[in-house]
Design a protein that fits this description.
- This protein has 205 residues and is α/β, with parallel strands linked by helices.
- Helix content is 20%, strand content 35%.
- Helix 2 (34-40) links the parallel strand 2 and strand 3.
- The two termini are 29 Å apart.
């Protein structure tokens, strides 16, 4: 599966994690001002996508970096970047910069994640790890004792789990707090989403 790291123009909370992921992916992309985040993390992007209104005023000398200008005002630079990555054949995207900054920007970012999670495997790496799970079987690595929260995205989701302290068997998780702060019992755990969608979150400790 082709993997990419996408940096948005939001605060990167864990630059060490960014550098570790960057070593394993095939491409590093920046959505416009995400270039500043890349430079702060000492990463060299392969491509910068957007209308270029948030990039550093003085561009660094990056001879191997491609700048793709897209001035469509009806789409955010985040959406433009995801569309390009999908068209280029990338299937799994790690994203930093979704959280923080202006509250309206953050709300839009989560809305974009929600919309694109049916087309790409998206992992948000801000303040922990967040994935939106569609119906199907999902298996994740974990460490014993780590907090795992399952939060409904739809009005209700029917979920079964294995390897978590509070086991679920075809149980409904509705919008609200149920599913918050479960705990991993072993090195891997499994989630079966029978219907609806849920957010799987590993919060930072």
């Amino acid at each position: 599966m082709s993997e990419a790291l996408l940096l948005l123009n939001g605060p990167a909370q864990d630059k060490k994690t960014l550098r570790a992921i960057a070593k394993d992916v095939e491409l590093i992309a920046c959505a416009d001002g995400g270039l500043k985040v890349a430079l702060e993390a000492k990463l060299t992007p392969d491509i910068v996508i957007g209308d270029m209104d948030s990039r550093p005023k003085k561009l660094p000398k990056l001879p191997e970096t491609v700048y793709l200008c897209d001035f469509d005002e009806d789409r955010s630079d985040f959406e433009k970047s995801l569309e390009w990555l999908k068209g280029a054949g990338f299937e799994e995207i790690f994203i930093s910069g979704v959280r923080g900054g202006r509250v309206d920007h953050e709300r839009v970012n989560w809305s974009v994640v929600r919309a694109w999670s049916s087309k790409l495997e998206i992992t948000v790496i801000d303040g922990g790890i967040t994935r939106l799970l569609q119906p199907g079987h999902h298996r994740f690595p974990c460490s014993k004792g780590r907090t795992v929260s399952l939060v409904a995205d739809t009005t209700s989701a029917v979920v079964s789990t294995k390897g978590l302290h509070y086991q679920l068997k075809e149980e409904k998780i509705r919008l609200g707090s149920r599913g918050l702060s479960n705990q991993c019992l072993r090195k891997t755990y499994e989630i079966q989403v029978h219907s609806g969608r849920i957010w799987m979150v590993y919060p930072d400790r």
